[in-house]
Amino acid sequence: MSNHVIPTPQVHTIPTSGGDAFPVRRVYCIGRNFAAHAVEMGHDPDREPPFFFQKNPNNLDASGEFPYPPHSSDVHHEVELLVCLKSGGTNIALDQALEHVWGYGVSLDMTRRDLQGEMKKMGRPWEIGKAFERSGPVGPVYPASEIGHPDQGRIAVSVNGEPRQEGDLNQMIWKVPEMISYLSEYFELQAGDVIMAGTPSGVNAIVKGDVMVAEIEGVGSLTVNVV
């Protein structure tokens, strides 16, 4: 094999609860997966086929700080369950989907809402609003062998101690096994792939100096300072 013509980019990793690192290959994000959030975003909450967009692996950030991004004056928080895969494949059967999960964490899908809105109006992709640097604050990943496969429990975020978002994992329109199975029909999933599983209603803007605390019952919590 020939030598690389540029320095080899590092494999991006996020921490696990045991102190080891989880290498990230791809990041799939499901849109409008809580009915109340679909309504607040102006959409019908009926169970339509799921849709996904992507962040980049190195958008996931465990530093505990979120730098307010450029070219936006309307950045929103979206608390989400992070699903981390240890294996994959194509056309994964629904009843076998959870066998591919290594663990779960708490994450935030930070969104430049104004830029996302402009892209929606023009029928363009959302990446400029979703996949910017450090747009995915994450906490440690907990192995499913320790915490099981959470399918219910409070999911919430507060800002400066004020409650903002709150829901329950059982309100997800598309459950974790369904997301894995559906994605595997269109992509070859592999170890290191992660899924951000959607957000409840209450998304709102943050400003520099804010402190966000995201929590998912049975999984953990995540504190992020907006800098």
CATH class designation: Alpha Beta
Helix content: 10-25%
Distance between the termini: 44 Å
Low-confidence stretches: none
Overall, the morphology is globular
Tell me the domain tally: 1
Give a quick account of the main beta sheet: strands, pairing sense, barrel closure: 6 strands, mixed
CATH homologous superfamily classification: Fumarylacetoacetase-like, C-terminal domain
Rg from Cα: 17 Å
Strand order of the largest sheet: 4-3-15-8-9-12
Per DSSP E runs of 2 or more residues, the count of β-strands stands at: 18
State the CATH topology.
Answer: Fumarylacetoacetate hydrolase, domain 2
Average pLDDT, all residues: 95
- Note the beta-strand portion: 25-35%
Domain Fumarylacetoacetase-like C-terminal: 27-227
EC number: 3.7.1.20
GO molecular function: acetylpyruvate hydrolase activity; fumarylpyruvate hydrolase activity; metal ion binding
Enzyme class: hydrolase
